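Structure, all two chains, one model.
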Amino acid sequence: GQNIDQPTEMTATEGAIVQINCTYQTSGFNGLFWYQQHAGEAPTFLSYNVLDGLEEKGRFSSFLSRSKGYSYLLLKELQMKDSASYLCAVSLSGAGSYQLTFGKGTKLSVIP
Amino acid sequence: NAGVMQNPRHLVRRRGQEARLRCSPMKGHSHVYWYRQLPEEGLKFMVYLQKENIIDESGMPKERFSAEFPKEGPSILRIQQVVRGDSAAYFCASSPLLAGGGNTEAFFGQGTRLTVV
């Protein structure tokens, strides 16, 4: 089976840095996605990692280690609008690569 | 370019009724995916469709659930004889190419929240 773990909730202060971890155990791996989802809204794409290393995109960065089955999303200079759920999702290798397997999401609360 | 449009946003049905959820993909997107999000759970893949074809329905319950993506019009997810356990948020996503493997992300709609009473 597929297993993706991420913390349920996190709290951080406005202006700070927060790291949201995601570990996965899957049969086959193609790449890892991070999505942001505000309450009642659509998940929106943040990043995609297929190779080991860090991908930086503005205030958001995502890291992947394929050998460790580990990824993290790093958010810098936190803003109140960053309060949302952050979803880690794995794309599996093979014919079913279009199927994303999601973790339960990490609800981030940014406080003043 | 409008995003993925789902309607209705909220749907209330009594047990035993039928629920019809609609999804219009982004312009130029021919790949449509449906996901279900139960309370306190992650999104779970249900079905992948291209125009007039069901490609993969491995995540669909065997009974009462069906999906279509006709040549004209939106994709429809249909749930017959709904039960309380069907209460969930149903998300549709679309992509211009096959999502996932080709570094092509899927764009999600805002979802339909189905409540069965």
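Chain A touches chain B through 28 residues (CB under 8 Å).
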